[in-house]
Amino acid sequence: MKVLIIAYASEPNAGSEYGVGWQVPMVMAQQYPEIDVYVLTRSRCREKIEQSLAEMGLPNIHYLFYDVPKWMYYKKEIGSKWGEQFNYIIWQLMCRKYIKKRHEQLHFDIIHHLTFNQYRTPSPGFFMDIPFVMGPVGGAETINPVFYQDLEQHTIHKEKVRLRGMDLRLFGWLVKQKKNNKVFLFSSRENMERLRIYCKGYQASVLPAIGFNPHEFEGCETVFENTEKTFVMVYAGKALDWKGIHVFLKSARIAFVEKGIQNFVIRLIGIRFPQELDKVNGWINELGLQKQVELIPFMQRDDLLKELSSCDLSVYPAFRDSGSMSVLEASALGCPTICFNAGGQDAFPDEVLLKVQIADDYNETIMRFAQKLLWAYSHRDKARKIGYDARCYVAHELTWEKKVGAFHSIYLNLLNDSFENN
Fold it and tell me: What is the predicted pLDDT for the residue at 99?
């Protein structure tokens, strides 16, 4: 079997979607040596990729690199609100001919669009006469209007468009372009519920986008000290408006400062750009949290894992997500995580995370988050038990080996169905 994996984002030793785009093909090549795995990506990380491939010495994995012409590439992608999306769409449109030429030479049996994976972008797999797997697909999750007051205007506009669902029809149009057999995988229940009607009868199911390698976490398991020490909370990620940092800081003030609790620290890791730093520092000053908040612009992944393994609580206050790698990594370390019960976090059972139910009122929602923070502070042993349960869950359900095994079964079934239909 020859499988072409489209992984616009693919990088060794990376997290998030770049980690997904690297780990899935690597584990697939290791676990199924009878499969020839071809990965199409950009030259952005070519040197790292080729060095890692040489070290691993897997004969059945092959990387193909395609880049759009330089004059079409938006160079100010980093820090831009739309540059990365523009480059991604152009790349998908331009690489079709390249894939067709390679298909004529190599005769792919399956094409799998892995990363990035959004329902409203034109994956080359929609336009090929090759059995096609798309997913796990994300992006159809919606933000509860309760949070709109914390969003920038362009985000509110996008959310209102998303909520109306007009752009879902674009996905339906793409699905109809070819009659190749297709399978659609969705990263969360909300994604599937909103998009299933546009799948035109093709197979659709939920499969979380995230995964992890247990070996990377050996020796990093959480070791808690006594319950009287300073309560350390860690947020790792960008300061995008929908990530909910402002809500977290407001909640922390209510939970701790207004109750006279001083032995707590908030570490915000990964906020690098000046505009974001200015915004977050403004919130910190406004809420009088200068003594409790530490801003750490960058941290190597190994150091971040150590940080998560020694803190008391991982905080992920995003208003929506297709699946958070930071939640997964904290869970893999046994670190309890607080988050909203919003789209994307349904990859995890309720009992393994400190999920906050969103109220109909903004202030009530803040209060609920604050109450959950205070509970974690006051019941550290019980919070640790939740972290332990999360670790057991992800070790059983969310390893790369298990995810790749699911992909392998999907490939075989898709090929069998295609053979029978022909």
Answer: 98
Task: Calculate the CA 97 to chain-centre distance.
Answer: 29
DSSP 343: T
Alpha carbons 99 and 140: distance in angstroms, whole number: 27
Buried/exposed code over 32-59 (b: 16+ C-beta within 10 A; e: otherwise)? beebbbbbbbbeebeeebeebbeeeeee
Rounded to whole angstroms, the Cα distance separating 114 from 5 reads 6
Burial annotation 346-373 (CB, 10 A radius, 16+ → b, else e): bbbeeebbbbbebeeebeebbbbbbebb
* Phi, psi angle pair for 273, to nearest 5°: -80, 140
pTM: 0.85
pLDDT at position 75, please? 79
Nearest-CA neighbor of 227 among 386, 383, 89?
383
Neighbours of 280 (CB within 10 A): 18
Are 30 and 4 spatial neighbours (Cβ–Cβ below 8 Å)?
Answer: no
Distance of CA 231 to the CA centre of its chain: 27
HSE of 310, CA atoms in CB hemisphere, 13 A = 11
Query: Which tokens is 195 given?
Result: 């998009």
Please, which residues bridge with residue 112 across strands?
A: 5, 133
Task: Give, in degrees to the nearest 5, the angle at Cα 134 between 415 and 213.
Answer: 95
Nearest C-alpha neighbor of 150 from the set 159, 163, 162, 141: 159
Residue 269 sits at φ, ψ, to 5 deg, of -115, 130
- CA 150 and chain centroid, separation: 22
Calculate the alpha carbon distances from 174 to 117, 124, 171, 371 in Å. 14, 10, 5, 45
**Which residues 6+ apart lie within 8 Å of 155 measured at CB?**
241, 242
pLDDT along the chain (422 residues), means of 10: 97 86 96 97 96 96 96 77 85 96 97 92 95 92 94 91 86 94 92 92 91 78 65 94 96 97 96 92 96 94 88 95 83 94 82 96 98 97 95 92 96 85 64
Question: Mapping DSSP to helix (H, G, I), strand (E, B) and coil, where does residue 301 land?
Answer: helix
Structure tokens at 328: 């997964």
CB–CB of 205/192 below 8 Å?
A: yes
Max intra-chain CA distance, the chain: 72
Residue 420: what pLDDT? 66
User: Comparing C-alpha atoms, which of 123, 65, 122, 128 is closest to residue 100?
Assistant: 128
